[in-house]
Amino acid sequence: MGVKIGIIGAGSAVFSMRLVADICKTPELAGSVISLMDIDEERLNAVHLLASKIVDEFGSDIKFEKTTDLEETIKDSDFVINTAMVGGHNYLEKARAIGEKYGYYRGIDAQEFNMVSDYYTISNFNQLNFAFNVAKLIEKLSPNAWLIQGANPVFEITTLISREVPIKMIGVCHGHYGAMDIFEKLGLKNENVNWQVAGFNHAIWLNRFEYNGEDAYPLIDRWIKENENKEFKPRDPFNDQLSPAAIDMYKFYGMFPIGDTVRNSSWKYHYNLEEKKKWYGEPWGGADSEIGWKWYQNMLLEVTKIIKDFAKLVLENKNKKLSEIFELALVGNRLEGHFEEEMRKILNPAQLSGEQHIPFINAIVNDKKTKLVLNIMNSGIINEIPGDVAVEVPVMVDKNGIHPEEIYPKLNKRIIKYYLYPRMIRMEMALEAFLTGDIKLLEEFLIRDRRTTSYEQVKNVLRELMELPENKNMKKHYLK
Ligand code: NAD
């Protein structure tokens, strides 16, 4: 059955192409309309062109609309995917530079248990506000639509909207695939592994790990023992699933941290660049170091340029199929490893991207039952966490909705008390600050930060942040 899917922030090209290819490879969703929405017309046009080519390639019955108007994309949608990052990476860099200027190494956002760099919990007023408005517009214009929230901070936004706006929503992330890195390293066949993760977004733990029906944690222990004297050599700054930091967290918490949880760790691994290198590997010291993040920014720039060039090539070869243009680009050596790999996946009719959006939609619309790991309101899934907090847990989805699995074995007490509780309190402070406009909460957030040595420092960093032209609304909200 066909549906209307709105993608907000669709200019994020690789992500949009993945979704378009997934829907083309899902015959049950034939007849669907995808409304691509972005404020950046150049990006939007490039994505629209590439998306149309993907549809031609597979001969699918999918139609596109493109728009810069938010209401247009939401109106009559059955599903709205929000992947927009307000202010983009440039704003993030500005906020981080201000943070570092005032002694908040690796940025004002690099809080303990909140190391992930595009979080900007303190400085993200625009991002929260945008997502909140999207939810309210859905309530007004398409009250039966599902919101699928992919843009960060997924934990804060899923909790905020689920509490405040009466619409159906989930948060999605692909972080749980980090578990596959472990299975691969241990030489396990995925289909014989019985596993679960649970926690909050970017704060999930491998609570169940069985291989051929038996506890598989001894396999991790053996791997750690065999590798303890070998140098950890990551292939890129994000390749940290089996880093010394991850292993150290496992030893302390008793279960393995999965995906970005390894970045979301503790100051112990982040005091300075040398420590970061020790725990996350040379040469970058992980994604959240000055060189690791630079690597990421360069990669994003490179991919943006390649996509632009590729879109140009498509325009020059209007009558050729996408696969033929891909071959042309390969011969001309115009692709870089990461994008080439992406394109191969996109062109492979038998391979889905791994993003959960389209399988979720297909399960709800066409009853194609599927197991996913989603962010939803807790309501008793992790007993020790309040019911009105979003958790990231394994679920079964079908036409009747979302059915959470029983979390078994339960998360260790240390994870609940010393990892999830502190993270939850930061989320609560961020949401209360956002809803009330009480700047004292932003201040308190920083007063509790180990990098703070005076109240002046707190006031100055917040003042300078609010002086940024992008933060006019934030300033109005907090300095009424
Ligand atoms: P990006 O800046 O490359 O792309 C985001 C897009 O949003 C851009 O095309 C931009 O023009 C658009 N945008 C900005 N303001 C907008 C507005 N007001 N209305 C509509 N569109 C707007 O960013 P990215 O690296 O693709 O990341 C996007 C978001 O997704 C971030 O929040 C990031 O943290 C998140 N992310 C989530 C996951 C996940 O698995 N959940 C994975 C990667 C990234």
From TrEMBL:
Record domain Glycosyl hydrolase family 4 C-terminal: where? 197-452
Asked if Manganese is a keyword of the record, the answer is yes
Name of a matching Pfam family: Glyco_hydro_4
Per UniProt, which keywords does this protein have? Carbohydrate metabolism, Glycosidase, Hydrolase, Manganese, Metal-binding, NAD
CDD domains assigned: GH4_alpha_glucosidase_galactosidase
List, separated by semicolons, the cofactors it needs: NAD(+); Mn(2+)
Spell out the coiled coil positions from the record. none
The cofactor note from the UniProt entry for this protein is:
Binds 1 NAD(+) per subunit.
The UniProt entry, under InterPro entries, shows: Alpha-glycosidase, GH4_Enzyme_sf, GlycHydrolase_4_CS, Glyco_hydro_4, Glyco_hydro_4_C, Lactate_DH/Glyco_Ohase_4_C, NAD(P)-bd_dom_sf
Family of the protein in this entry: Belongs to the glycosyl hydrolase 4 family.
Q: Per its record, how is this protein called by name?
A: Alpha-glucosidase/alpha-galactosidase
Q: What is the lineage of its organism?
A: Bacteria, Thermotogati, Thermotogota, Thermotogae, Petrotogales
